[in-house]
């Protein structure tokens, strides 16, 4: 079990009640920005290595939050990087010393935040480690490198602090909500933090300062191991892979019972990314069921109890394969096999052809929650929550990786684009995982769960859902939620 108690010499911390105990958390906000120089004591230059979605967002947020402080944020890119022009357009330039070769920026930085793609990090981390200045701190926003080092018998270089700050949302969300926070104090994406190595005793405050500078409304403690497991499992399950499998299977079911393509899309994909996500975001998981009439609740109940067991089996299998390194090895093998070749897109099935038509109909009416779709989705979310709880993850991590990241970051983007677009445009690691596991959820639901939903609901499973401790944990987290929804154009 991850210890969630910690202290800070810089920030005032709070205690949050969670099922079975309490967690120490840091409530963020722009009023804390004047404390950042103290939190970053000893850091004069922060090197952000990479300019993908997270690299761009974090470099910009750090630069804006540290404006006026004697701390420079620089971006390091590989030679010939196609991202250099965009970095320059955002004000990072060679002329002002804030853009340069990745190894040169690494060598000149006191905190080196590694945000290049997982495959590139696996291939080039030794070069980066060799370039580090003495006592420089290594920063991560993902635990993939730890998994890779363990698989290959490597390790982090001795004498260097290793910390992680992991925003619970995609890079574009990290930046958009930070910008919205210019008018609404504290608007941003929650983050976890971890201290993996702390040779000089400053790692916790450094990590907390980094999280505050990103705009995190609240920051909770985890470990790099726990973050890696929950993050990789989550993106293969309820955050991405399972969502794709759910909507494909539900769309097929809707078409088989006679719905036209537009109606089938609205009952499935549009419903999950729209009314179901909004209800959970603002009122919690239980509110989805409570908002239905008696007939709708019966449909929800049958779908929920028919789906839960299949979902739990797959989530447990994903977790085991992430924990023993199988999933990581599959990603590395796929990267070697694919090389620079693009992956084929998954948005070719019939349902995605009507997405534009459905999006154009928005505003004509408010779609109600579709009870069968809601039951399937909430059952899958609960299955992931239960797997994480059984494996000993802290409650803040459970609700952020299983619920908050989904409904406050990813699903709004899926609503604006569509689920297939998200799968085809996410990180390579997430995309490979979604393509591998999404079809597993799709087939299990079509072959096992949906036929079982013709039978009466399992009352014991419904009671477990109604009395689930996650509702208490989500209510506690909701008190820290900014009063703003992400704006996605």
UniProtKB/TrEMBL annotation:
InterPro entries: 6-PGluconate_DH-like_C_sf, 6PGD_dom2, KARI, KARI_C, KARI_N, NAD(P)-bd_dom_sf. GO terms for molecular function: ketol-acid reductoisomerase activity; metal ion binding. Keywords: Amino-acid biosynthesis, Branched-chain amino acid biosynthesis, Magnesium, Metal-binding, Oxidoreductase. One of its GO terms (biological process) is L-valine biosynthetic process. Pathway: Amino-acid biosynthesis; L-isoleucine biosynthesis; L-isoleucine from 2-oxobutanoate: step 2/4; Amino-acid biosynthesis; L-valine biosynthesis; L-valine from pyruvate: step 2/4. Mg(2+) 2 binds at residue 231. Gene3D superfamilies: N-(1-d-carboxylethyl)-l-norvaline Dehydrogenase, domain 2 (1.10.1040.10), NAD(P)-binding Rossmann-like Domain (3.40.50.720). Its cofactor is Mg(2+). Mg(2+) 1 binds at residues 231, 235. Residues 223-365 form the KARI C-terminal knotted domain. Residues 26-226 form the KARI N-terminal Rossmann domain. Belongs to the ketol-acid reductoisomerase family. This is Acetohydroxy-acid isomeroreductase. It comes from Streptomyces guryensis. The lineage of its organism: Bacteria, Bacillati, Actinomycetota, Actinomycetes, Kitasatosporales.
């Amino acid at each position: 079990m991850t210890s969630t108690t910690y202290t800070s010499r810089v920030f005032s911390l709070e205690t949050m009640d969670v099922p079975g105990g309490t967690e120490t958390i840091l409530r963020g906000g722009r009023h804390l920005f004047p404390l950042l120089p103290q939190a970053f004591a000893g850091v004069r230059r922060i090197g952000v290595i990479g300019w993908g979605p997270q690299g761009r967002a974090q470099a910009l947020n750090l630069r804006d939050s540290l404006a006026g402080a004697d701390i420079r944020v620089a971006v390091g890119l590989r030679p010939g990087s196609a991202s250099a022009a965009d970095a320059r357009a955002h004000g990072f330039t060679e002329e002002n010393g804030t853009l340069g070769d990745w190894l040169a920026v690494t060598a000149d930085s006191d905190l080196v935040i590694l945000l290049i793609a997982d495959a590139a990090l696996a291939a080039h981390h030794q070069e980066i480690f060799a370039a580090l200045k003495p006592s420089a701190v290594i920063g991560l926003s993902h635990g993939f490198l730890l998994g890779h080092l363990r698989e290959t018998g490597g390790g982090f270089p001795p004498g260097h602090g290793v910390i992680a700050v992991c925003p619970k949302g995609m890079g574009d969300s990290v930046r958009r909500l930070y910008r919205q926070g210019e008018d609404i104090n504290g608007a941003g994406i929650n983050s976890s933090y971890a201290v993996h190595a702390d040779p000089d005793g400053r790692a916790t405050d450094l990590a907390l300062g980094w999280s505050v500078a990103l705009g995190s409304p609240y920051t909770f403690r985890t470990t790099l191991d726990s973050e890696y497991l929950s993050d990789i499992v989550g993106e293969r399950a309820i955050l991405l892979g399972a969502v794709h499998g759910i909507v494909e299977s539900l769309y097929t079911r809707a078409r088989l019972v006679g719905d036209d393509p537009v109606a089938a899309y609205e009952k499935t994909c549009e419903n999950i990314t729209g009314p179901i996500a909004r209800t959970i975001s603002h009122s919690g998981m239980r509110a989805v069921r409570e908002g239905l009439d008696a007939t709708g609740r019966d449909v929800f109940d049958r779908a929920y109890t028919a789906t839960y067991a299949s979902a739990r089996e797959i989530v447990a299998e994903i977790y085991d394969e992430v924990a023993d390194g199988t999933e990581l090895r599959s990603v590395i093998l796929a990267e070697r096999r694919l090389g620079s070749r693009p992956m084929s897109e998954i948005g070719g099935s019939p349902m995605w052809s009507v997405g534009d038509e459905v999006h154009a109909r928005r505003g004509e009416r408010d779609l109600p929650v579709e009870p069968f779709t809601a039951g399937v989705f909430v059952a899958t979310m609960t299955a992931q929550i239960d797997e994480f709880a059984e494996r000993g993850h802290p409650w803040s991590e459970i609700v952020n990786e299983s619920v908050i990241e989904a409904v406050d970051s990813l699903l709004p983007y899926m609503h604006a684009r569509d689920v297939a677009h998200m799968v085809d445009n996410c990180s390579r690691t997430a995309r490979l995982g979604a393509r591998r596991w999404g079809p597993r959820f799709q087939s299990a639901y079509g072959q096992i769960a949906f036929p079982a939903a013709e039978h009466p609901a399992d009352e014991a499973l419904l009671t477990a859902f109604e009395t689930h401790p996650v509702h208490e944990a989500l209510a506690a987290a909701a008190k820290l939620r900014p009063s703003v929804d992400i704006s996605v154009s």
